[in-house]
Amino acid sequence: MIKRTFTTPWHDYELIDAGNNQKLERWGNVYTIRPEMNAYFEPVLSKKQWLDKAHFEFIESSSSAGEWKTLQGNLEHDWQIKFNNIIINLHLTKFKHVGLFPEQRANWDFIADNLQSGDRFLNLFAYTGVASLVARDQGAEVLHCDSVKQIIKWGKENMESSGLTDVHWVLEDALKFAQREIKRGKKYQGLIMDPPAFGIGAKKERWKIENKFPELIEAALALRAKGGFIIANTYSPRLDAERIRQITSDLCNGEKVQVTTLSVKSQTGKILDYGLRTVITGS
Q1: Which of 169, 221, 223, 234 sits at a 20 to 30 Å CA gap from 120?
Q2: Measured CA distances, 239 to 80, 202, 204, 275, 278 (Å)
Q3: How far, in Å, are 22, 81, 135, 177, 236 from residue 13 at the CA level?
Q4: Which pairing describes strands 56-60 and 66-70: parallel, antiparallel, or unpaired?
Q5: Cβ(214)–Cβ(247) under 8 Å?
């Protein structure tokens, strides 16, 4: 049984309940119901209790899109929450996401505990940048790389809302950028990457994480400074913990590798398991 790394709730976020392939969450004073394929069990609260709490429910029209239904109140579709010193701008998107993956809190805490002012930090496949801003708040020099222009814009808005400056924003394919950084001789005290499980690249090339993972780890190891750390989040049943351990064993000579499941426990006691979290540390 693979160990779990639990993400704890904070003042502005908690998982209330989960089940029947959905989850009920609180984001500040906004409650949402969203699809969740990992919630294959029965919830604790009734559907009526969920609907009495929730302001918005995401209704799927396909496996990757849908629309939000207003259940009660007249709340805006855009609002802010806070994590420590970071202000996060949230928005109800047509892809069921709101701009934050709260199970990542365990990674944010790790980054805050393991970076010092002046360290260099690289965030690949960086999304809206909470990990980048946590690192910047520690005084690190931060490079944030994502291939989606709108996501980079969202990250910049989070930086400005948080009163931070000087994150280096890179609009580029993350793996290609990492490989160019290797050629430039760059080193980073910390790296985090959150690659997609699958996708189609700008030149119609197919991306499958089970094929790309060794290349990503190899690049991260080449970029990591002595004594630094690597965090890799993966969300694919085709890349299980055994396969990750095999890949890292081949590439990480004497490094400490820890593979756990990123998990969140609901207020009602249900446990949601998300992707796998691989942390590599060494001398």
Answers
A1: 234
A2: 34, 24, 22, 10, 12
A3: 17, 8, 20, 33, 25
A4: antiparallel
A5: yes
Indicate if the alpha-carbon torsion angle 240, 36, 209, 275 is positive or negative. Answer: negative
Tens digit of pLDDT for each residue in 192-207? 999 988 776 556 667 7
Per cent of the chain over pLDDT 70 is 98
Tokens 């409650």 sit on residue = 31
Place of tokens 């000579």: 253
The phi, psi pair for 122, rounded to 5°, reads: -120, 125
CATH number for the domain harbouring residue 18: 2.60.40.1180
**143, part of any domain:** yes
Mean pLDDT along residues 240-252: 94
Q: What is the CATH number of the domain that holds 194?
A: 3.40.50.150
The DSSP secondary-structure symbol of 182 reads H
In a domain, 192, yes or no: yes
15 with 128, same domain: the answer is no
Length of the chain: 283
Q: What is the Cα 260 distance to its own chain's centre?
A: 15
Helix axes 241-251, 209-223, angle to 10 degrees: 40
Q: Does 58 share its domain with 115?
A: no
* Residues of the domain holding 188: 101-281
Q: Does residue 167 share a domain with residue 29?
A: no
Write the CB contacts of 54 (distance below 8 Å, at least 6 apart in sequence). Answer: 24, 31, 32, 33, 71, 72
- What is the Cα–Cα distance from 283 to 272, expressed in whole angstroms? 34
